[in-house]
Amino acid sequence: MRVFSQFSLRAAQALVLLLLALTLAGPVSSQTPDETVQVIAQQQKMISQTYKLERLGEEAMYRETLALLAAYGGWTTTTPPNEENLHLLEAADQSEKQDLVYAKKAVQQNKSVSEDELKRFLDIHANVETLLAAAIDVYDLLKNGKLDEANALYRDRSTPLIRAINADAYTLISSLQEKIDKAALHARLAK
Q: Average pLDDT in the 27-51 region?
């Protein structure tokens, strides 16, 4: 029983010393609370733009999958037939490309983005652009009745691209959330 109480006493002493050190330490960051809030808001905006890219990629994959299934199965969910192909084309249309341009511009104007984060984001952006181009290629192949070639393109090009987009987006978002957590902790300790 005596060993346990010595352990408890040492643990309590260590905890008290740690709390005392944190209390006596000056502000961890030279940022004011307003600047910290600004940094957190900018990080959140970058996370939002990364989610937007990920969504664009997922939408293109969904449309490609639906168009391929419809072509192989000879069915359609819409009237007139083969409209799945048109939906695939719409997924890679100008509105999606405008979203890409906006997302890229918003992140490049973000002052709190590091070079590494910007590079990761631009890699995701390039992969989404490539995926949209592949979706148009799949559309063209399906329109010309080349089902097996469209399937091969989907398998060999689109699927690895969406995996890379999802993995890179997860990594980037996780690192940004970690920065937000650290900024919030610094703000709390600066009080």
A: 78
Q: Give all domains of the chain, ordered by start, each with its CATH number.
A: 34-190 (1.20.120.30)
User: What proportion of the chain, given as a percentage, has pLDDT over 70?
Assistant: 71
- Inter-residue contact 97 to 125 (CB < 8 Å): no
Distance CA 109, CA 100 (A): 14
Tokens of 102: 């906006």
Q: What pLDDT shows up at residue 127?
A: 96
Instruction: Kindly compute the dihedral angle of the four CA atoms of residues 157, 160, 161, 165, in this order, to the nearest 10 degrees.
Output: 170
To the nearest 10°, the Cα dihedral for 50, 52, 53, 54?
90
Q: What average pLDDT does range 45-59 have in this prediction?
A: 92
Please name which of 103, 159, 158 lies closest in space to residue 136, comparing C-alpha atoms.
158
Indicate the average pLDDT of the chain.
Answer: 79
Considering the entire predicted model, what is its pTM? 0.74
Measured CA distances, 112 to 49, 56, 103, 123, 133 (Å): 14, 24, 16, 18, 31
Under a CB-based contact definition with an 8 Å cutoff, are residues 113 and 46 in contact?
yes
* DSSP label of 79: S
CA nearest neighbour of 135 among 32, 62, 52: 62
The structure tokens listed for 11 are: 């643990």
